[in-house]
Amino acid sequence: MKIYTKKGDKGETQLIGRRVRKTNSRVEAYGTVDELNSFIGVASVALKSGKTKDIYEELLTIQHELFDLGGDLANVSGKTEWALNTESVERLELRIDAYWDESPPINTFILPGGHEGAAHLHVCRTVARRAERLASGIDDDDPLPPAALPYLNRISDFFFAAARAVNARTGFEDILYARGKNEFK
């Protein structure tokens, strides 16, 4: 079997249920989810062992969920049996709370960076925010999976909390935004 099909040579692709332009809002959203998944793969390399192995394992779970989400976003067939569910959102909330508790309190914004793995997680956070914006802007009449937007909203918080936990565990201090004021009163 060849990897290329030539079916997309005229700027169209196949959703589950119909062909659309590659600029379709659903294609943009699930393409960004796929991009996020790739950046998670990069972050995973820096977090695979030692004090961050549990975060690495959590990232593997998230990668599978993002494949589920991508499939759900591509589904315009009228079937509403979604692969991603609210249990995934609830699990993220538990992990966010646990990672947040590991980090020192902050009252201003922080700059992305610190440990290499934390820096990669900050990139994941920003790509997740873009995926959320794109999924929120899907402009067709087909339903979105109920867990899609909450999951994308939580996952960016997850990456922020996990990046801070990585820094705390590995002895890197968060870099406070120098011009920041007490933003979180």
Automatic annotation (TrEMBL):
Q: Which residues form the Cobalamin adenosyltransferase-like domain?
A: 3-165
GO molecular function per UniProt: ATP binding; corrinoid adenosyltransferase activity
Coiled coil start-end: none
Q: Does the keyword Cell wall biogenesis/degradation apply?
A: no
Reactions accelerated catalytically = 2 cob(II)alamin + reduced [electron-transfer flavoprotein] + 2 ATP = 2 adenosylcob(III)alamin + 2 triphosphate + oxidized [electron-transfer flavoprotein] + 3 H(+); 2 cob(II)yrinate a,c diamide + reduced [electron-transfer flavoprotein] + 2 ATP = 2 adenosylcob(III)yrinate a,c-diamide + 2 triphosphate + oxidized [electron-transfer flavoprotein] + 3 H(+)
Q: Pfam families in the record, alphabetically?
A: Cob_adeno_trans
Gene Ontology process terms (BP):
cobalamin biosynthetic process
Which E.C. number(s) belong to this protein?
Answer: 2.5.1.17
The UniProt keyword set, sorted, is: ATP-binding, Cobalamin biosynthesis, Nucleotide-binding, Transferase
Q: Which domain of life is it from?
A: Bacteria
Give the pathway.
Answer: Cofactor biosynthesis; adenosylcobalamin biosynthesis; adenosylcobalamin from cob(II)yrinate a,c-diamide: step 2/7
The record ties this protein, via InterPro entries, to: CblAdoTrfase-like, CblAdoTrfase-like_sf, PduO-typ
Q: Which family would the database say this protein is a member of?
A: Belongs to the Cob(I)alamin adenosyltransferase family.
Subunit description: Homotrimer.
Instruction: Name the PANTHER family for this protein.
Output: CORRINOID ADENOSYLTRANSFERASE, CORRINOID ADENOSYLTRANSFERASE MMAB
Put simply, this protein is called Corrinoid adenosyltransferase
User: Which organism is this entry from?
Assistant: Alkalicoccus saliphilus
